[in-house]
Every structure is written in structure tokens, then in C-alpha cells.
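Recall the central idea of this unit: under ordinary conditions, the amino acid sequence of a chain determines the structure it adopts. In this exercise we apply that idea directly, starting from the sequence alone.
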Amino acid sequence: MSERPVPRRESPWGMPEGDHRQPKPHRCNDRAEDVIQACFEGNPFKTVPGPFKLFWQCMRSKPGEEPTEPFYYLEFEPPQREVKLE
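Accordingly, the structure predicted from this sequence is:
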């Protein structure tokens, strides 16, 4: 997952005192963007199934077990699994 900043909206009520939390993108956000990009890359019946399959696998997986296959249309590095040394 790429660590791109998430835009923050201004609230008419302002920020609570001491609340410095920042929004984080969902772990499958890049997979969803890959599906959306596939919709505009020709015949959607041919371009969407591959990215959607990886997006669905990502949504059904546990955190840290996301698919590591490369993206179809985005120019990002595929997600890497953390290797735990025991």
C-alpha cells in the first residue's frame, strides 16, 4: 500500500482540543483505484475482472495478508509482505 497523504476536510465545528489524529487510507485503497482505472482502459468486460479479483482478495484478507501481485494499471510498486523473524 502506498503511503500517500489523505486530504482532510475542514469542519464547521473545528478540531477538538488535543486531537491531532490524521486520516489514513484504507489498506485496499490502491486496489480500488486500480479497478476504477481499469474501467477507462478499453472494454470494461475485459479490463475490470483482473483488478477486481485482486481488490476482492484484498478486502477479504486479514491486515498484513493482502495480495502481493502487481497492479494492472497503476504505476505503483506491488505491496510487500512483512517478514517476521522469530
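Residues 49-60 form the longest helix (12 residues).
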